[in-house]
Amino acid sequence: MSDLPPEHPALATRRSVLAGLTATAVLLPAGGRAQQAAPARPSANEPPLEPALRTLTAAPAKARLRPTPAPETEIWAFDGTTPGPALRIKQGETLRVKLENKTANPLSLHWHGLRGEAAMDGVGGFSQPPVAPGESFEYRLRPSESGTILYRPFVIGGSSEPAGRGLGGILVVEEPEPPVVDLDLPVLVTDWLLGDDHVIRPFVTASPESAAAGRLGSWVTVNGGSPPQRVAVAPGARVRLRLANGCNARIMRLRFDGVKAVVIAVDGQPTDSFEPVRSQLPFAPGSRYDLIVDMPEEAGATAMVTALVGSGVPLVRLVTEGGRKPAATAPAALKANPSLPAAVRMQDALRPEIVIEGGAKAGPDQKLDLSGLDLERPWRINGGVGAVGSKPLFSARRGTPIVLAIENKTAFFQPMHVHGHCFRLLHPLDDGWEPYFLDTVQIPDGKRLHVAFIAENPGRWLISSTVLERFDLGLWSWFEVT
After folding, report:
1. Quick one: pLDDT at residue 28?
2. What is the distance between the alpha carbons of residues 475 and 473, in angstroms, rounded to a whole number?
3. What pLDDT was estimated at residue 34?
4. How far apart are CA 56 and CA 324, in angstroms?
5. CB distance 291 to 243 below 8 Å
6. What region, left, alpha or beta, does residue 105 occupy, with left being phi > 0 and alpha being psi -120 to 50 degrees?
7. Which burial class, exposed, middle or buried, applies to 37 when counting CB atoms under 10 A from its CB (0-12, 13-18, 19+)?
8. Cα 344 to chain centroid, rounded
9. Which 8-state DSSP code applies to residue 441?
């Protein structure tokens, strides 16, 4: 694959279309299955076993991001790999992760999509002190819900560089009775801003790029390797794809060719299964999809997942090889998480508002207009920027229904993530909602959307841009549930 064609940052973002969506940790090698021995069970007279502690060490490393003969690139990695180890636990089990920081920057780990304790949300400088170089921090997570979760650095004012240097990974929380598949494949898509010398370009927080689309990479990797990732499966095999966008800023669309793809979860939450419209899905930073793919029964068939960037970037190529398997007949579906509300009483809702302004403007010739823009504070949220000591956007008692309006007055798509909760995307007239839950929503430029949720998770929570350069420059707010 050649480098991505140069695109104007404004064009790269504006071409993205919302289309209706806007206790043992097991290591999963990319594309493989982990083998896990059943943990020993204590007897009735013994205390429960303490979950094993898993250490993730963030440190400098090297990786060949472009194909040979390109040299290796200096990156940051978890345990020497990018992405970091795919962690896998069962729903209801406890995951203990010790983050050791051997990089030059403060770190933390946000578990994107995990509705856990606020103290474990992993926002450095907000929900926890940043983990200084040479220090460590233990996360103790007990997911009550299944799902595909993205973990990546999330430090107030300092997320772009550690993520853009390669830190990130996927946590899989398995259902008690997961659907039977022949392959469960986590897929983390990342992009890198590399020079012709294969060195990662410097990170500049206050820059024209940060005031526009963000840090758009020149090279895409899939599970840390050059795309497409080729995966051989048996004819007739059923594959579960867990797709996650770990890019700093790149908003894209995915297309599925050669096979019928069925969505069974969005942002980690089970949904009534559906086929994507025109076999495409929007894919913003932080977004996750679980899909079921039933491969053709003849050998040599190919199924492709392609990112619609430039002329198209093939991400995953599934190829049928070997003996045929009997075609799966069970429905491709997941049971809904019982803790999610069937409805939100919007007539009783608290109705806060967010207005996003600022950023570069696109002139008539589609060139960026930065005139009069303060690059130190290019984005505004409700007239200011996020600050730890600021007043919350709202305070709500536990169980209060919330209808949040987000208005985007900028020239760019704005993907926003609500921490610790998931929500419904409302129809334009607030007369219904889309039939799935989200934790990240894309607001098109010049548009206003409404999301509804129950403030049910006690603590202090962010509402933040998932474009990390915008987050670092203050495009976030927060709320509290008491």
Report:
1. 35
2. 6
3. 39
4. 39
5. yes
6. beta
7. exposed
8. 25
9. E
d(CA 363, CA 333): 46
| CA contacts within 13 A on the Cβ side of 141 | 33
Question: What tokens does 309 get?
Answer: 């960037």
At 39 the pLDDT is 47
- Residues 319 and 260: beta-carbon distance below 8 Å: no
Neighbouring-strand partners of residue 409 = none
Q: Residue 415, CB half-sphere, CA atoms under 13 Å: how many? A: 29
Q: SS3 helix, strand, coil % of the chain, rounded to 5?
A: 5, 40, 55
Give the C-alpha separation, 331 to 99, whole Å. 39
Residues 6+ apart with CB under 8 A from 5: 310, 311
Task: Calculate the CA 122 to chain-centre distance.
Answer: 14
Block means of pLDDT (10 residues each) for the chain, length 482 residues? 42 36 35 42 64 96 96 98 96 96 98 97 98 98 95 98 98 95 98 97 96 97 97 97 98 96 97 94 98 96 96 97 90 89 89 97 78 94 96 97 97 97 90 92 97 97 98 98 98
CB atoms within 10 A of CB 41: 9
- In sign, the C-alpha dihedral spanning 310, 15, 213, 265 is negative
Instruction: Determine the Cα–Cα distance for residues 81 and 445; give it in Å rounded to an integer.
Output: 36
Question: Residue 343 has what pLDDT?
Answer: 85
Q: State the pLDDT at residue 313.
A: 97
Q: Both tokens of residue 212?
A: 């526009």
Q: Is 4 left (phi over 0), alpha (psi -120 to 50) or beta?
A: beta
Q: Is 330 exposed, middle or buried (0-12, 13-18, 19+ CB in 10 A)?
A: exposed
Going from the C-alpha of 29 to that of each of 85, 169, 170, 377, 415, the distances in angstroms are 7, 11, 11, 41, 30
d(CA 468, CA 215): 8
Closest residue by Cα to residue 231 from 303, 312, 335: 303
Separation CA 155–CA 168 (nearest Å): 13
Closest alpha carbon to 102 in 72, 132, 126, 81: 132
pLDDT of residue 6: 41
Question: Residue 375: phi, psi to the nearest 5?
Answer: -70, -15
DSSP symbols for 45-99? TSPPPPPPEEEEEEEEEEE--SPTTSPPEEEEEETTBSSPPEEEEETT--EEEEE
What whole-number distance in Å separates Cα of residue 316 and Cα of residue 303?
8
